[in-house]
Each structure stands twice: as structure tokens, then as C-alpha cells.
Amino acid sequence: MASSWRRSIGNMRSFVGNSMGGLRGGSNLASWIVAGTLAYFLWVKPSQDLKREQEEKAALAASSDPYRYIEKRKPIPDPQETGLIYGNKNRASRSEE
Question: Could you list the residue ranges that cross the membrane (predicted)?
């Protein structure tokens, strides 16, 4: 009973080791560090920089004209065919009636 439990743990460890390329010890850790660093500099950091740049542009635009109107809420969807509660009021069907 205990040997089957140990064998299943051993099989799981070998499966995980093989799925990670068969590397063990320090070389495995080093490869994961290199992969993580590359992923950070190729995907995470550029997206963070782009987001920060967009926020800075928005702050600059907002500070340039303090009295400019900025919509702070999304329009309420209208279940009818007019689209939105404010906006195009379906003038074509009213003129036909």
C-alpha cells in the first residue's frame, strides 16, 4: 500500500520533470528565470508602458482645458429601436406616420 503511494508520487514527479524539458536542479531554475525575464520584457512591460503613456496623455489633455466637458457615465441602452435614450430619435418613422 505504501509502496504504491510512493510510486504514484514518483511518477508524478517524473511527469512534471519531463514536461518541463527534463532539466533538473539549477539549470531548470535558471531556464525558468530566463523565460520569465524574457516574458516580462517582451509582453508585460510594453503593455504597462503603453497604459502609463495613455494615462499621461489623458491627464495632459484634461489639464489643458479645465472647463472641457467630459462624459463620466456610459449612456443607458434603450431597448427600443432608437438606440440610446439621448441621441438619434428615429426621425424617419415619425415623419412617415
Answer: 21-43
Give residue 86's identity as a one-letter amino acid code: Y
- Whole-number mean pLDDT of the chain? 77
**Contact (Cβ atoms closer than 8 angstroms) between residue 86 and residue 75:** yes
Q: What is the C-alpha separation between 31 and 22, in angstroms, rounded?
A: 11
**Which three cell numbers mark 20?**
518541463
Q: How many domains does the chain have?
A: 1
Range of the domain at 19: 2-96
Chain-centroid distance of CA 68 in Å reads 30
User: Using one digit for the tens of pLDDT, what is the confidence trace for 41-60?
Assistant: 999 999 999 999 999 998 88
pTM confidence score: 0.42
SS3 of 71, please? coil
